[in-house]
Amino acid sequence: MADRTKALIVILVLIIVVLAGVVAFTFLIKPKVTGYIVEKQTEGVQIAVNAILLQLQQQGFVQIPVGNQTLILVPYQQPEQVQQAPEALAQ
Q1: 55: which residues sit within 8 A by CB, 6+ positions away?
Q2: Cα separation, 23 vs 30, whole angstroms
Q3: How many domains does the chain have?
Q4: pLDDT (tens digit, 0 to 9) for every residue of the chain, 91 residues total?
Q5: Residue 85 domain-assigned?
C-alpha cells in the first residue's frame, strides 16, 4: 500500500510539473519569442523599403521581379491643377 501511495504522489508531482511548464511556456516564453520574431520582421521590411528608396534616388526607377513579370516603380509627379474662374464652373 505504501508503494502505491508513493507512486501516486510521484505521478501527481510530475503532472503538476508538466502543467507548470505549459503555463510558463504560454505566458513567459512564447510572448518573448513572438515579440522577437515581429521585431525582426519589421526590421527586414524597413531594410527592404530603404533599399527600394535608395535605388529609386540613384536610378530614378526600381525594377522588382514578381513571378515571371517585372514591376517597375517610378516617382509620381502630380500634375498641377489649373485654377478655373468661378464663372466657368457655374455654367
Answers
A1: 62
A2: 10
A3: 1
A4: 778 999 999 999 999 999 999 999 999 999 999 999 999 999 999 999 999 999 999 999 999 999 999 999 998 888 887 666 666 555 5
A5: no
CA-CA distance, 20 to 22, in Å (whole number)?
5
Q: Can you give the residue range of the structural domain that contains 60?
A: 2-77
Residue 73 · residue 56 · CB < 8 Å? yes
Q: What is the largest CA-CA distance in the chain?
A: 105
Task: Report how far residue 4's alpha carbon sits from residue 10's, in angstroms, rounded to the nearest whole number.
Answer: 10
Residue 55 DSSP SS3: helix
C-alpha torsion sign, points 13, 16, 22, 26 = negative
